[in-house]
Amino acid sequence: MGPGILLEDQLEAVVPVEKQKPSNSIAVSGPSGLDNNLSEDSAVEGAGRAVEPEASISTTNMLKLMEESNREAALAIVTQAEVPSPKLSPAGPVSEIHATHQRQDRSVVSTSKLVGLLVPLSGRGSVLGEAMLNAAQMALFENFDQETQLIIRDTKGTPEGATAAATFLISAGADVIVGPLFNTSVRSVAPLTRSTSIPMIVFSNDITVAGEGIHVFGFTPEQEVGRIVSFAKREGKLCGLAMVPDSAYGQAVSRAFVERSDPAEASKMVAMFSSDGSDIAAVVQELAAEHAVDGARAPLECILIASGGDQLRGIATRLPYYDVNMASVQLLGTALWRSQGLGDEPALRGGWFAGPAPGNFERFNQNYQTAFGSPAPFRAALAYDAISLVGKLLAALPSSYGINDLLLDDGGFHGIQGIFRFRQSGRTDRPLAVYEVTRRGFKVIDPAVQRFPH
Questions:
Q1: pLDDT score recorded for residue 103
Q2: Nearest alpha carbon to residue 34 among 48, 21, 44
Q3: Same domain assignment for residues 208 and 67
Q4: Could you tell me where the DSSP H helices lie in 79-120?
Q5: Residues 167 and 249 occupy one common structural domain
Q6: Which of 181, 192, 234, 314 has its CA 20 to 30 A from that of 133?
Q7: pTM over 0.85
């Protein structure tokens, strides 16, 4: 998948499909801040000199500002015991752009719109949390107007930390909260946001936490399994076997796989292996023996493997080792397959998997690397999309009132990795692409749709 910073004149960023509107970009970030997400995604500052309040910041200038920023100050954590005014000041001097905005007419406070961001900047998941903060700041420069501010809080990588951070944001007057990342943190925060009717766009991919104002924004196992199994069936490949890890992610894949069963099809079987991969050889050997040509069962024709990286390679290499005829087996996968060098394994070539549309991720990644000196994790794009969208929507409103109705626009929105739309149920519709593993990498063999049906 791949994006780059969403340029106003070059990219269709995360904006309402038919409601694009240029806006100024300023940042007032108060410091800010993973639990375990279902996914096992493998891919895992911005301000500078003062600018004219009414001037839109070009992407080139924005990148320069980011390169000049004081990263340590940008990641400072708000430690005040008492809730300050909505125009939060960071714990340290973030940059002149923040200081200049602080000195503006205080009457702005009465019309300001506040966006809260919950990411882990310390403790568990802090590396990914910082990447998400970086992406959020890129979105802020591109899409926030003068009245919209971003308040960042550190969840400290725990449900307790997420609760404390969310309490702070609610007290500060946040109109929308983006994050946290993991399902356990979402569950701890949910009662607070639901009681105050503050919409929350969470990075989790666990659909069990969705609803009542909580929008699950991550790519879910249910979406990936549904897409790849449907595509395989269309191509004449009925998949009756899935191999999944013994984890929450594996259980979600297993449920989705079984629920896709058609009464006319043969029953489906799910084989579980240890999450650490220690018993992969034994599991593969047993499956191969049970489905031997001369055995009691039909030979293996299609296998869904919900794993990635070394575990996936370990399964793929053992299949032919235990005499599975790879020429007659179609391997299917989830987005965990999107890792570098997968095509180097001959047993995986020709395999199909579902994942986010390529979209503009490569361009996003290039601009992220320019600004921060390292590649962007795939999930950093979620932070960019969510913050960009909220900024654009709030810019179109005189106040935060009505933000819920705009979020539920049936037309959907354009994101870095394809289109998406929020549903009343809290789920997010995301058309996925189907990829084939080749010697040189991945190629799209069935693109994601480009617009939602009316």
A1: 26
A2: 44
A3: yes
A4: 96-102
A5: no
A6: 192
A7: no
